[in-house]
Amino acid sequence: MNKAQFEALLEQVESSGAKLVAVSKSVDTHDVKGLAGFGQLDFGENRVQELERKIEGLAGISADYRRLRWHFIGRLQSNKINALLALHPALWQSCESVDAALSVEKRLSYELPCLVQINSANESSKQGASLNEAVDIYHEICERCKLLKPVGVMSIGANNSDESVIAKSFEDTYKVFESLQKHGAKICSMGMSDDWRIALKCGSNMLRLGRILW
Ligand SMILES: *Cc1c(COP(=O)(O)O)cnc(C)c1O
C-alpha cells in the first residue's frame, strides 16, 4: 500500500471510531519501517521470537522506533512468557484463560493491559474462551491479578463464507464487551483483512489488519 492508499484506509477506520493495529507477522522489518513512516504506531505479532527479531532489527536502525507499540496477538507458550515480557508489549490481546493470566502475572514487574480472547464461533482450530466463560474469566483476572489488567475482549471472526455467520460471531463478542464496559472494558478488538467492514458495523473499535496493508 502506498501512503495515499494507507491514509484512505485509515480515514475509514478512524471515522468509525476504531484504531488500527498493523499485523506485521508475514512481512519484514523493512515493511514495518515503511508503515511507521506513514505514521502508524501500533503493530501486532503472533510469535514472540519474531516480535523480538523485529524490535531488535528496528532498534538497530534508529532509537526512534522505540515509540512503536507492539501488540501480542498469538498463542503464548509458557516457555516464551519471560521473553515476551522483556519486550514490554503494549497490549496482550490473546489471553484466553485464568491459568494463562496467572502465569503471566507471576512474572510481571510492570502493569500490562490484556484482552480476553473469545472463540465466539466455537471453532476447534482457534484458541480463546467460550462466549459463556468469557465474562467470568475477565472478572477472575481482575480479582486475582495486580499487574495484569483486563481492558476488553478480542475475537477472530467466524471462518465462514456467509457474512451473516461472521456478523453473528462479532455481534456475540460485542454483547460480551458491552456487559463488561461497566467493569472497565474499553477495547473490542475484532476484524481482519477479509471481514473488517463487518466488524466495524458490529461495534469493533480495534481492527487487526495484516495482508490488506502490504
Ligand atoms: C494474522 C492475524 C491477523 C491479521 O490477519 P489478516 O488476515 O492478514 O488481516 C489478525 N489477528 C490475528 C490474531 C492474526 O493472527
From TrEMBL:
InterPro entries: PLP-binding_barrel, PyrdxlP_homeostasis. The keyword Flavoprotein does not apply. Keywords: Pyridoxal phosphate. The keyword Cell membrane does not apply. PANTHER family: PROLINE SYNTHETASE CO-TRANSCRIBED BACTERIAL HOMOLOG PROTEIN (PTHR10146), PYRIDOXAL PHOSPHATE HOMEOSTASIS PROTEIN (PTHR10146:SF14). NCBIfam families: YggS family pyridoxal phosphate-dependent enzyme (TIGR00044). This is YggS family pyridoxal phosphate-dependent enzyme. It comes from Campylobacter magnus.
